[in-house]
Design a protein that fits this description.
By secondary structure, the protein is an alpha/beta fold. It has helices at residues 12-23, 41-53, 99-114, 136-149, 151-154, 171-180, 205-217; strands at 3-7, 27-34, 57-62, 118-120, 161-163.
Length: 226
Amino acid sequence: MPKAVLLLSGGLDSTTLLAVARRDGFDVHAMTFRYGQRHATEIDAARRVAARFGVHDHVVADIDLRTFGGSALTSDSIDVPRDRDVGERGVPVTYVPARNTIFLAFALAWAEVLGAADIFIGVNALDYSGYPDCRPEYIEAFERMANLATRATTEGSLLLRIRAPLSKLTKAQIIQLGTSLGVDYALTQSCYDPDTGGAACGHCDACQLRLKGFAEAGIADPARYR
């Protein structure tokens, strides 16, 4: 089984991504980040998901993006928006500056150590309009950079691929795909601002997109909402 590093947030998309990687025969090494986000429930969810899928190993890396702030997810001075029109254009305040670049850089380092040629990230179509580091051209550019940046690639022993198999799917399609692969979405956490018991708010962008996706897929959302 070829080794792969997979970015696992514990959310709906990355959990489906893990199911796809396992279906496709990869030996998955999962990486989650404690980056100063508002809550730890997504880290707990990532641990549950990693255990359920029996990944080869699961690393929780500590980095503190609260040092810079600049996002509703990493700063107490910026509120998480609620009941916003998620079709609205522009970059929302829940965008974390350079987050995917930072995460992929960590994944790249681990992939080189492991001798893994594949890095999985769960970006998808619904994120394109809001988050600049979820666009296909960004993923393609990072892949080109990665193949210029490491000893393994410059010496010719490795060709790195950034895999984003969900990139052209809607939320409903992602949910249908995951369901067909046996994903238990009750394990996942999508909310930007859950309560202390882990119940989702139902009003942030992430909750709205999740609820809309389940409704369009014709499947009941098993998440707990307050």
